[in-house]
Write a structure and sequence with these properties.
- The structure holds two protein chains of two kinds.
- By secondary structure, chain A is an all-beta fold.
- Helices cover about 0% and strands about 55% of the residues of chain A.
- Chain B is mostly beta strands.
- Chain B has no helices and twelve strands.
- In chain B, strands 2, 5, 6, 10, 11 and 12 form a six-stranded mixed sheet that branches. Chain B has a four-stranded antiparallel sheet with strand order 3-9-8-7, with no helix packed on it.
- Classes of the chains: A mainly beta, B mainly beta.
- The interface of A and B includes residues 102, 103, 107 and 111 of A.
Chain lengths: ~120, ~110
């Protein structure tokens, strides 16, 4: 089955602008999470959505927001971009499988550069 | 608290050497899952393995093997006869309390 799809893959924005990233989860998965990864840093958890509701939230400023639609697709938005927002943004979807386990699968990521 | 620790930040080995990546976790749950992911330079995290807390059997998949020990709260990953294509960042993760927790990753460089 199709994996997690993220668009766009690469983008360049100017300080002060805003950006919207999109994520389509694996079919049947209702949970979508977003992570930020900066050079040399680990995965920083942004937020998780489940059935259109934000279920968990990381420690990021209010400029970072997200939403999830009824078809489980998700978007994240960063307003008033700063140079430090340059990063790889990873979307992941997860769901329970027939074995009773839960696995998280990642998309290829969106590389954001703020200039 | 739920936490995953990967104490090794960077490891370099010469091709064909064996290498073990360490992962130590903390959880208050009795049922949980442990994972390893590989992140090549392209960026995508690739799922490698999942183990549940009730299954302590070691697993081998080709040159990869995993050692899960609840007594020491560890889930270590060994690559046998390493190859240049194994160069990547490897993340260990825990699913517990309805949330995923990731370690900080270990960057592995395999030198030809």
């Amino acid at each position: 089955k199709a994996g997690v799809t993220q668009t766009p893959r690469y983008l360049i924005k100017t300080r002060g602008q805003q950006v919207t990233l999109s994520c389509s989860p694996i079919s049947g998965h209702r949970s979508v999470s977003w992570y930020q990864q900066t050079p040399g840093q680990g995965l920083q958890f942004l937020f998780e959505y489940f059935s259109e509701t934000q279920r968990n939230k990381g420690n990021f400023p209010g400029r970072f927001s997200g939403r999830q639609f009824s078809n489980s697709r998700s978007e994240m938005n960063v307003s008033t971009l700063e140079l430090g927002d340059s990063a790889l943004y990873l979307c992941a979807s997860s769901g329970w499988d027939r074995e009773g386990g839960n696995t998280i699968y990642f998309g290829e990521g969106s590389w954001l550069t703020v200039v | 608290a739920q936490k995953v620790t990967q104490a090794q930040t960077e490891i370099s080995v010469v091709e064909k050497e064996d290498v073990t990546l360490d992962c130590v976790y903390e959880t208050r749950d009795t049922t949980y899952y442990l994972f390893w992911y590989k992140q090549p330079p392209s960026g995508e995290l690739v799922f490698l393995i999942r183990r549940n807390s009730f299954d302590e059997q070691n697993e081998i998949s080709g040159r990869y093997s995993w050692n899960f020990q609840k007594s020491t709260s560890s889930f270590n990953f060994t690559i046998t006869a390493s190859q240049v294509v194994d160069s990547a960042v490897y993340f260990c993760a825990l699913f517990g309390g309805n949330q995923f927790y990731f370690g900080t990753g270990t960057s592995l460089t395999v030198i030809p």
